[in-house]
């Protein structure tokens, strides 16, 4: 017999929409600060329809932009804290090599961000990491702090701590409507909730979702092919033990960049992907025709035959994921220009996972009306002209 149901609680200190890694870390910080927080997710958890699923993401200290590299020490520390809180391993240190033409400005900026000088030429790279083959005039910069975050495990861990601190996570509940006001009213497929503060971290759905709030954000969801490549000779590249992550910068054959991770999810397969994809609608991402040309695979195959010649040149496994790109590929972390009790975190442009602990802290601070811990100039909504629609 079903227990008599309790009347559902409907008022909170803060409501967060979207339980990907950004919304979940935001809710985690709020709950740790004793804010009564409701985290709403449209799909039943765990799910693979957004941007935060899968087993692996790169974490690195090297960034060409100082306004990201300065956040990395705190991000590493907060990831460690989450590991300690949950007793789980969320990070494997593998190192990362940045590959590009000697003297490339972004490569140089990354080297400066590391504060070290370890530059490897082709012979030194091949000796240290068998499997990599640089071309004439190219070098590798080593970020030894870098490694792999276990993404699915991390998402579960942060949601677990949120709930342990008294947070409410309601999945399978899609937000349909927001009514701004001193108390924001949120209507979902299952109920109506109110809070004096709202945070929207809806990933690839954010652009369309915030139109109801008079915002026209220049966000482009991209469908990303996530490809895994088999070694021609099993064991020949040290994929499972010594191989680092890598990221290319300034290569003319792949201006958006190509990146790779050692074998984590599938034994003997290396994850190598193009840091770009095809424009899509998150509701229709599986409707792409299977016979449509796959420019990303062609770019990757050609890269692999030159730079990773010990791998087969056709992917053994393919999955999909979503990026949500802003025009400058910087995040959007800001208050709504008109409704200051509504905060938006979006546009993570394929590099937001590693920074989620700090992003969550910043969104929490913005929502509580506090001075953010970092300079927010690069993340302002108003850097894009015309974001506020006339009538509201
Ligand atoms: C292939 C790939 C590789 C990547 N590699 C790296 C990497 O190596 N390192 C790195 O740092 N970053 C990486 N990233 C980027 C990183 O994964 C993303 O920046 C991050 O996951 C974005 O998280 P999010 O919470 O914004 O989005 P999501 O995880 O998509 O979360 C948004 C959530 O909002 C929910 N939602 C939307 N609308 C509603 C609604 N109306 N009601 C309720 N819920 C709603 C969605 O269902 C979703 O769960 C990669 C991304 C991809 C796709
Ligand atoms: O954020 C990162 O470190 C990687 C770089 C390459 C593309 C995917 N994201």
UniProtKB/TrEMBL annotation:
Gene3D superfamilies per the UniProt record, alphabetical: D-Amino Acid Oxidase, subunit A, domain 2 (3.30.9.10), FAD/NAD(P)-binding domain (3.50.50.60)
E.C. number: 1.5.3.1, 1.5.3.7
InterPro entries for this protein: FAD-dep_OxRdtase (IPR006076), FAD/NAD-bd_sf (IPR036188), MTOX (IPR045170)
GO molecular function: flavin adenine dinucleotide binding; L-pipecolate oxidase activity; sarcosine oxidase activity
UniProt enzyme class: oxidoreductase
A cellular-component GO term for this protein: peroxisome
Coiled-coil segments on the chain, per record: none
Keyword set, alphabetical order: FAD, Flavoprotein, Oxidoreductase
Cofactor: FAD
Reactions listed under catalytic activity: sarcosine + O2 + H2O = formaldehyde + glycine + H2O2; L-pipecolate + O2 = L-1-piperideine-6-carboxylate + H2O2 + H(+)
Domain FAD dependent oxidoreductase: 13-366
One of the GO BP terms on file: L-lysine catabolic process to acetyl-CoA via L-pipecolate
Role description: Metabolizes sarcosine, L-pipecolic acid and L-proline.
PANTHER family: PEROXISOMAL SARCOSINE OXIDASE
Family to which this protein belongs: Belongs to the MSOX/MTOX family.
The protein's name: Peroxisomal sarcosine oxidase
């Amino acid at each position: 017999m079903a227990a008599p149901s309790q009347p559902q609680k409907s008022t909170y200190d803060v409501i967060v929409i979207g339980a990907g890694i950004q919304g979940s870390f935001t809710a985690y910080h709020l709950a740790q600060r004793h804010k009564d927080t409701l985290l709403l997710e449209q799909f039943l958890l765990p799910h693979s329809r957004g941007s935060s699923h899968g087993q692996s993401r790169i974490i690195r200290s090297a960034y060409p932009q100082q306004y990201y590299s300065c956040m990395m020490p705190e991000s590493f520390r907060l990831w460690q804290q989450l590991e300690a809180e949950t007793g789980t391993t969320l990070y494997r240190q593998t190192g990362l090599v940045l590959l590009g033409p000697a003297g490339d400005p972004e490569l140089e900026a990354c080297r400066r961000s590391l504060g070290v000088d370890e530059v490897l030429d082709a012979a030194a790279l091949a000796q240290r990491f068998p499997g990599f083959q640089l071309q004439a005039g190219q070098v590798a910069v080593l970020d030894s702090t870098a490694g792999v975050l276990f993404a699915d495990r991390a998402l579960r861990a942060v949601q677990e701590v949120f709930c342990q601190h008294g947070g409410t996570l309601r999945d399978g509940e899609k937000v349909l409507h927001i009514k701004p006001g001193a108390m924001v009213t949120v209507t979902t497929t299952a109920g109506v909730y109110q809070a004096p503060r709202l945070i929207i971290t809806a990933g690839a759905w954010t652009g369309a979702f915030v139109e109801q709030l008079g915002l026209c954000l220049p966000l482009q969801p991209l469908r990303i092919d996530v490809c895994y490549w088999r070694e021609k000779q099993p064991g020949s590249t040290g994929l499972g033990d010594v191989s680092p992550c890598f990221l290319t910068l300034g290569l003319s054959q792949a201006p958006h960049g190509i990146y790779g991770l050692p074998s984590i999810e599938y034994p003997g397969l290396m994850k190598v992907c193009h840091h770009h994809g095809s424009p899509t609608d998150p509701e229709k991402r599986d409707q792409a025709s299977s016979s449509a040309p796959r420019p990303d695979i062609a770019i990757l195959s050609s890269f692999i035959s030159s730079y990773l010649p010990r791998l087969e040149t056709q992917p053994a496994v393919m999955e999909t994921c979503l990026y949500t790109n802003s025009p400058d590929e910087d995040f959007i972390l800001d208050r709504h220009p008109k409704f200051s009790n509504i905060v938006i975190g979006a546009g993570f442009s394929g590099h937001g996972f590693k920074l989620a602990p700090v992003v969550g802290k910043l969104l929490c601070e913005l929502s509580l009306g506090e001075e953010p811990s970092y300079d927010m100039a690069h993340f302002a909504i108003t850097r894009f002209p015309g974001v506020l629609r006339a009538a509201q």
